[in-house]
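Re: that chain you flagged

S.,

Sorry for the slow reply, it's been a week of failed gels. I finally had a moment to sit down with the sequence you sent. For the record, here it is as I used it:
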Amino acid sequence: MGQLALKTESFFDILDTILSTLNIDSVLTTVVGDIRALLGADRCTLFLIDNDNNEIYSKVLQADNLVEIRVPVTNRSLAGYSSIAGEILNIKDAYDDAELMAVCKELCFDKRWDEKSGYRTRSVLAVPVKAKGEVVGVFQALNKPDGFSDSDVTMMEQLAFLLGIAVNNALSYQVIEEEKRLRGYIIDDIEEGICILDPKKKILSASKFLEIMSGMRHSADSMIGEDLLDLFPSFRGTEIEQKINEVLAKGYKMIAQLSVLEVKVIPYLDEKNKVRKLILIFTRI
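Prediction finished late last night. Pasting the structure tokens below so you have them in one place:
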């Protein structure tokens, strides 16, 4: 009873942490560390799905630094399979091909991680994490002595549901904060007109200035989701198109000059210096 009470108290401590955390890195590290201790596993990782790159990724602490790890979403990783199938995997020995094939004939374990690190993976528990009915990640626990029990699986099902809420809240909060930073990033440069594009040159946001530029044929709201060069075909083949392409390729701020307009093209970069958005600032000359 004492052990059960300890685990119950720990469970609710984790529950409180999960529901009060809005930082995705904290979810990937601190919360996962608490769950690892509760499970009694040797290692635990929460992978998130990157649909754009068909990968799952996470961040782990190495020498006080957060290091990102990425795995292709294929049957060559147990976490990858769990994310594809949306199924819980409870494997006693990851090196037992017969056990894996009993789950799925194509399922296999990628031993390269073990070979590179010298680690020996044995028991594996992989649980899909869902938000709003969609798989957004996979929680993976490794190497619990004697494997993971049915009660471990039940507990992780409950925690995975809560992790889905935490991940959804944290990622939504991250988007809000990014938009705040974006507005702060451009506020000093705004002069007359502004347009924000995604890397495919689709309009994410437009000011009233662009309505005037379009001869009032398009409202700012109706421009969202449209290709800038489709709405303003007169920009094709001009310095504006050229500078947009250069900024997308190089990630540096550039200026395009037309007869009646100066257009600043400013990249908004992510932590890997990849262009996430383009900010176009239009000024009448």
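What I noticed first: The longest helix spans residues 150-186.

Talk soon,
D.
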